[in-house]
């Protein structure tokens, strides 16, 4: 077991210890000194910062961007893009340094907007990304494939987003990387490069671990599982198949480059298939 993997396990154990001590203190008053309840939480925060940290030199030494096909076809809009900032999702953890989120928007304004109060949540069918086909970005071997987790309602309102950030995301983080990405695929592209497709639709997988796939081949469908605000595709390249130890690798999509946040782009089927 690598030091990084051990650190991630310790990180989750510290959070679980914090929750257990907090509950115990509420149930059995003064079971432990109150200040002691927060010691494992402080340790978890420290470990998370150390594990998720990468220096500017580390990032500068990353290999050049790997060119692959886009994982989708049609018109999409980018969010949380590495074209705007690195790390794109605010953390280097789980190999997300150069990750990107994209949402389907076949026509401008066809995607439900964020609402501060109402509706609190929307069904997935309201979003054009839900059920959209996802294709292989390159010739690859399937390392991991899972699609048993449910697709939850949207979190694109003020109350729902607060619940996600304050409660749901924390619980998922304690449970492990697979609870964060939800239903997902990991592809081995060769040369130490792995691609991740996250938040897949439940029951939509067309491949399984060990399969060899060709660029442009149908893999699954877009869903809303895991730590997701709405149906969307989370895509990233990394240097290891284990999300706990992986480091991000920069990418560029053939024919689309790296779209910036808010930028719409269209991928013809021929371009995605390489």
Describe the 3D structure:
This protein is an alpha+beta fold. It folds into two domains: 3-52; 57-272, Glucose Permease (Domain IIA) (Distorted Sandwich), CATH 2.70.70.10. Helix content is 27%, strand content 21%. The chain contains seven helices and 13 strands. The strands form three sheets. Strands 2, 3, 5, 6, 7, 8, 10, 11 and 13 form a nine-stranded antiparallel β-sheet that branches. A hairpin with a 2-residue loop joins β6 and β7 (193-198). α1 (3-27) packs antiparallel against α3 (39-52).
The separation of the N and C termini measures 37 Å
CATH architecture call of the largest domain: Distorted Sandwich
Which descriptor suits the 3D outline? globular
C-alpha Rg (nearest Å):
19 Å
Largest sheet: 9 strands, antiparallel
Strand content: 15-25%
- For the secondary structure, the number of strands is 13
Order of helices and strands: HHHHEEEEEHHEEEEEEEEH
| CATH class category label of the largest domain | Mainly Beta
What structural category characterises the helix and strand content? alpha+beta
Total number of helical segments? 7
Please state the average pLDDT score: 90
Task: Show unreliable segments.
Answer: none
CATH superfamily of the largest domain: Glucose Permease (Domain IIA)
CATH topology name of the largest domain, in short, is Glucose Permease (Domain IIA)
The figure for the number of domains is 2
Percent helix, as a range, is 25-40%
